[in-house]
From TrEMBL:
SUPFAM superfamilies: Thiamin diphosphate-binding fold (THDP-binding). E1 component of the 2-oxoglutarate dehydrogenase (OGDH) complex which catalyzes the decarboxylation of 2-oxoglutarate, the first step in the conversion of 2-oxoglutarate to succinyl-CoA and CO(2). It catalyses: N(6)-[(R)-lipoyl]-L-lysyl-[protein] + 2-oxoglutarate + H(+) = N(6)-[(R)-S(8)-succinyldihydrolipoyl]-L-lysyl-[protein] + CO2. Homodimer. Part of the 2-oxoglutarate dehydrogenase (OGDH) complex composed of E1 (2-oxoglutarate dehydrogenase), E2 (dihydrolipoamide succinyltransferase) and E3 (dihydrolipoamide dehydrogenase); the complex contains multiple copies of the three enzymatic components (E1, E2 and E3). It is an enzyme of class 1 (oxidoreductase). This is 2-oxoglutarate dehydrogenase E1 component. NCBIfam families: 2oxo_dh_E1 (TIGR00239), PRK09404.1 (NF006914), PRK12270.1 (NF008907). Its cofactor is thiamine diphosphate. Belongs to the alpha-ketoglutarate dehydrogenase family. Keywords: Glycolysis, Oxidoreductase, Thiamine pyrophosphate. It comes from Lysinibacillus contaminans.
Amino acid sequence: MSNNVTTVSSPWSAFSGPNLGYVMEQYDLFLQAPDEVEAELVTLFQQFGAPALATGEVSEAVNVEPGNFKKVLAAVQLADTIRNQGHLAADIYPLKDRHLDTSRIELSTYGLTEGDLVEMPATLFFNDVPVSVNNGRDAINYLKSLYTDKIAFEFAHVAQSEERAWIQGKIESGSLKAKLSIEEKKAILDRLTRVEGFEKFIHKTFVGQKRFSIEGLDTLVVLMDEIANQSSAINMKNIQIGMAHRGRLNVLTHIVRKPYDMMFADFAHVSNEHFLPKDGSLEITKGWTNDVKYHMGATYTSPSGMKIKLAYNPSHLEVVAPIVVGQTRAAQDDTTHAGAPTQDASKSLAILVHGDAAFPGQGIVTETLNFAKTNGFSTGGSIHIISNNMIGFTTEHFDSRSSVYSSDPAKGFEVPIVHVNADAPEAVVQVARFAFEYRQKFGKDILVDLIGYRRYGHNETDDPTVTNPQTYAIVPKHPTVRVLYGEQLATEGVVTNEEVATLDTSIYAEMQASYDHVKEVGETAEHITTEMPDAVKDGFPVVETGVDKDRLKKINEELLAWPESFEPQNKLSKILKKREEAFETGKIDWGHAETLAYATIIQDGRSVRFTGQDAQRGTFSQRHLVLHDKNNNSEFTPLHNVSGAKASFAVYNSPLTETGVVGFEYGYNMENPNNLSVWEAQFGDFANMAQVMFDNFISSSRAKWGQKTGLVMLLPHGYEGQGPEHSSSRMERYLQLSAENNWTVAYCSNAANYYHLLRRQAAMLGTEAIRPLVVVTPKYLLRHPLAGATAEQLSKGSFQTVLEQEGLGGNPAKVERILFGSGKVTIDLADQIGDGSEFDHLHIVRVEQLYPFPEEKIADIVKRYPNAKELVWVQEEPKNQGSYLFATQYMIDIANENGKKLTYVGRPAMSSTAEGDADSHKAAQAKLLAEALTK
């Protein structure tokens, strides 16, 4: 059989003489009046274009009577339908409980008989005819054997003809079905015996404990194992795996190589660190609160040096997908040089395991698929696997999706789909090789729909017969894939039935020995608990972040220089050139200070990656990190040309998604902990769409799983009369999640303090003290002169958690009221007081860091004003939102200790975040400012 089979480019090469002439006449008519042309011809004209005279040598022509040409066209259509829709008739359901649609590929549907096909040459269907194919009948039967067996294909939706031809060639050459060696077959049997034995042992030994077993999809491990083998063969550096809880423990054990005794220790409530391999091949992390066993991950280093990482993941199923893709991109990027990072997709591969109900049901899946071809988020292709047990908890497919297959959403992204019967282990191995080869050749995502069943209920205490009685009348009678494959190999003479039984017994005994060891250790060993690291308890140390003024001046000059051939838009050129003047004599605005911070950070050897929907320019046209030539739209990034830079800088405009991008950046920073990863919401409230990432990963991953990240999140916020949705970043949500020094929440009022905050965060990267940073950033303050910075402020000092209003508080005896607030409202107050000469009764304290709350510094300030009767928390957010309720728990103690009264000035409690029109906003804002400043 040839290994170079491709289809003919069109059916027209099979026609000659009057038949071809007739078809050409019909094509002319099709161009003028398609409704007058027979439907079969219309379909072929649409698919193959104009008929043309054959060029070169024609091996055979079809000799039919002028009235019978439709037989040939019908045969071509039949072959095309087998290729494109044969999957509907394929043997891909282990329980055989789904209707197979064969009507589309039956001869009678096309008015054909076997006799008709026998008269047709095989060249009508193939350019390179397989040796076993002698005529049209053989060709159709051959195609059916390929497209309706245990493996089924969907690739007609792939736009690139080169990809379609390659896939079709792989299928029709027969190479995809290449037979496995005896050693490979025995290895599969061993793997299946371990997979099943592991589940059986837990089921018997730890009765009633949840494990979300893999049973019914045992070959998922075989599939992943083969992908790992293929990856190792090309010296790939690491594999990143993301999956939910079903089958996770088995994957941890047999792919990530977590030893049996470690796994059994988790069930027996014995500290699994006692059984950690001493060769360092397995790495695990734990937090001080810990998590359930089927959320945990690990990293295995194989003898070849390749790392296999299973990402930690809560019960939110698909949300781990963008995180793993972000980790994969970080592993591919070289950020250790100036300029843009360089990506090598051969270094790392993402394997994403999805649930069949979750894949079409969770929007994060399509958010992640959408990354595949974008500049800042591509990874050279992920291998997606739908772990398809044909049910979602208790929900049947007709209630969980509107598509034929779970995999259908992938078609919109031109992802080839391969369906495979999970009870066919050798087919699963062949599919793994095919998927890996496709990814390597085309650098694109590919999806494997592994179709099996679920042997038990959603968990092992659940009775599925209550809700799915028909399916679970079949399942108990259906042999496991290990049994089926053992019988197959015994029939083939690869092994004997006795050897199959002996293997099962010996592996079970191995597991029993591991468990006996766990019990023995558990009787004497102390339970190991994880404590919060001192570096976390202590919070950030004070870090001097000033940069020599001459160094900053040189950086500033370099940022304002671009090639002579580059011509930015005139208005933008003038705006940027003003930064030279601002550095010398005026105020450095927010975007300017931020850019200088990034420049110094990459000079210090820390790479920077910045993403957001408008990150390059800035939502409010304040940043301009990437310039565009007005003549040809070419791009220029000034930060790529900073002299002395020791690390890369990247800024990408992201897709219009929050959950996916935030997850991606979280994963990127975990994989590259020395990179300053920054994400900016277009408006702060847009981060609402990524709440699951904040709740379940960023705020708590250190406590649950011991995973560190220094991700920076910029959330534009401020009340300027733009209505409810563009005012509030919902900072109260982040403050509510604040505990155990898990992250920093800051709301700066000054560009210099923001500059020092970024530099402090970069300085702590890669240390035990690092934590995420939530920054509530301004909108109209971006260019406000009272929020600007001088070069002197950037060259000296460090981030200040508290700032005091200049011009106030100089005479402590006269101060009767101390105002406390954060961010924009403190600048509004500063606008009102001018030089402060008429406000001796007031002092204003800007709380720049809301968490960890600077309680001691505030208490020290209060003690300086013994005559102050009132401490006032001022905010523009409603009383039930913003920072007031969070700050109150600290401020009450300070007020009580100093004999002061604590009061609130701001909007009343509201269900909405802000007023809906500018006039109402102005009135409410004026009222609260007046109330705050009144004696």
